[in-house]
Structure to design on (143 residues):
């Protein structure tokens, strides 16, 4: 399954990946289809399999990031409090994503804390990288 190839889940034992695959679904979306909106309850973590998604952060001057690399993770608000999406995700071309139930993934982390910690550390790295990109796009020096 595609999940095995995603950086977030690399080196995670196959029996845990198999468990994640049980509550992951592959979905296709058309151009301009919105996957989630800023402020919505964050139910799902997404992984881009094919296509392109625009992640738009609200503000005086909205900032939009393209998600177009296969295996890119977005919608991570499903795993962090307050579990509300902080941006809007919209397809800019026909796209295929893996959608993972965030609640079930968090419960899996409770049962497998070492692997859960490894995944959350990788997720923190992804979030940190996206934050630095946000600073650069706004012309702010990163702290």
């Amino acid at each position: 399954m595609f999940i095995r190839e995603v950086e977030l889940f690399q080196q995670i034992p196959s029996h845990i990946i198999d468990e994640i695959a049980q509550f992951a679904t592959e979905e296709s979306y058309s151009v301009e289809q919105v996957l989630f909106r800023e402020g919505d309850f964050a139910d799902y973590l997404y992984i881009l399999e094919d296509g392109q998604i625009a992640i738009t952060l609200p503000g005086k001057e909205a900032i939009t990031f393209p998600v177009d690399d296969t295996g890119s993770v977005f919608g991570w608000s499903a795993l962090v409090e307050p579990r509300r999406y902080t941006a809007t995700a919209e397809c800019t071309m026909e796209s295929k994503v893996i959608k993972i139930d965030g609640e079930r993934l968090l419960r899996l982390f409770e049962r497998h804390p070492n692997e859960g910690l490894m995944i959350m550390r990788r997720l923190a790295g992804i979030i940190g990288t996206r934050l630095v990109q946000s600073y650069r796009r706004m012309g702010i020096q990163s702290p």
Remarks:
- The radius of gyration is 15 Å.
- The helical segments are 14-22, 102-111, 113-137.
- The chain has three helices and eight strands.
- The domain at 2-136 is CATH 2.60.120.10 (Jelly Rolls).
